[in-house]
Amino acid sequence: MMNKVIGIDIGGTSIKLALFDMTGLMLDQWSIPTNTANEGSEIPADIIQSIRERMSRGTQCLEEILGIGIGVPGPVNEKVVKRAVNLGWTNFPLKQMIEKSLNIPVALLNDANAAALGEMWKGSTEHVRNLVFVTIGTGVGGGIIVDGKILNGQHASGGEIGHIPVHSTEERICGCGNINCLECYGSANGMVKTMNRLADRSAVSNTKEIFDLIEADDPQAKETLKMTVDYLGRAIAGVMNTLDPEEIVIGGGVSEAGPLFLAPLRAAIDSYAFPQISGSFRLRKAILGNEAGMYGAAYQIVSTLKEYAV
Fold first, then answer.
1. Engineering a disulfide at 106: which of 95, 140, 148, 183 sits with its beta carbon 3.0 to 4.6 angstroms away?
2. Which residues, at least 6 apart from 154, have a Cβ–Cβ distance to it below 8 Å?
3. Does domain 125-287 have CATH number 3.30.365.10?
4. Are both 4-115+290-309 and 125-287 of the same fold?
5. What InterPro entries does the entry give (predicted)?
6. For residue 127, how many other CB atoms are within 10 A of its CB?
7. Which residue in 161, 187, 158 sits closest to 172, CA to CA?
């Protein structure tokens, strides 16, 4: 009988599940739709049923599962999901519900934090214990790992890099309610807003169009990129100067532009980093993509179990 864990990543449209051995080898992977009806009250039962069904097939059995890690789109503490707007949850006792039904320990974590742990565990080429993960997509998310542990914070809001306040001559209201958060300028949505403002019209609707224009030497697109990486560079350098991590990992849709985005971002961070750090930090693109959250959720359980075993 082999000890195994399950890593789950709950998204707005689908729930991704994977079975791992204790070394992080993925043995099986599947997904189910996210049922957000009735304020997401059906989701725990769907997860439980899906695990039971999958484990009753073939060679797997439920008794081999030592724990389940679950990444959730919102702040969590050790017991509840404090808030997951997309799912309709507030102080939702997800951990207790699944533990009670399956009689297997459950660990909850925020989805960006899960992705950060996944990248540390299976994405880094070196053995890394201190990492800052920044996901740049429709918003800007983050995860901070210190000495191998995720920094969740007193209010379950550790790593909210996208909400670092930035200085700007204009005012943009953030989804969180504050004005001029990094996310308003450093995200894909922020880039599109900046480009259309510079062009004084609706010139683009997504960042792919901006990067295509950059390759065609469009001055406004180039200025958009320069402004965007300057905002991000200042904020990320601030985090680096505070934590001095071993590695910065950039994920999310915008990172798919590769060197066209990462090279100027690196240069911007470099210009604001503390002299001791500048020029000698590791920055890389996230490599696990949509699987990062499942790996990280599984890692949270593996590391917890190892802690108790000591």
1. 95
2. none
3. no
4. yes
5. ATPase_NBD, ROK, ROK_cs
6. 8
7. 187
Question: pLDDT band at 85, cuts 50/70/90?
Answer: confident
* Other Cβ atoms within 10 Å of 309 Cβ, number: 6
> Two tokens at 225?
């990129």
Contact, 8 vs 294, CB < 8 A? yes
Question: Distance between CA atoms of 41 and 64, rounded to whole angstroms?
Answer: 28
Least Cα distance to 86 among 133, 115, 43 occurs for 43
Instruction: Measure the CA–CA gap between 8 and 44, rounded to whole angstroms.
Output: 12
Longest alpha-carbon distance in the chain: 65
The total of other beta-carbon atoms located within 10 Å of residue 144's CB is: 25
Does the CA dihedral 282-283-285-287 come out positive or negative?
A: positive
| For the chain, counts of helices (H) and of strands (E) | 10, 12
Separation of CA 263 from chain center? 21
- Residue ranges of the domains in the chain? 4-115+290-309, 125-287
- Report d(CA 295, CA 305) in Å as an integer: 15
Q: Could you tell me if 283 and 268 are in contact, meaning their C-beta atoms sit under 8 angstroms apart?
A: no
Of 52-66, 154-168, 169-183, 237-251, least confident by mean pLDDT is: 52-66
Q: Assign 191 to helix, strand or coil.
A: helix
Q: Which amino acid is at 166?
A: V
Joined tokens for residue 304: 């917890």
Percent of the chain past pLDDT 90, that is, above it, reads 90
* Structural fold of domain 4-115+290-309: Nucleotidyltransferase; domain 5 (3.30.420)
- Please check the confidence at residue 308 and state whether its pLDDT lies above 80: no
Task: Tell how far CA 89 is from the center of its chain.
Answer: 19
Interval 22-55: pLDDT, tens: 999 999 999 999 999 999 999 999 999 999 999 9
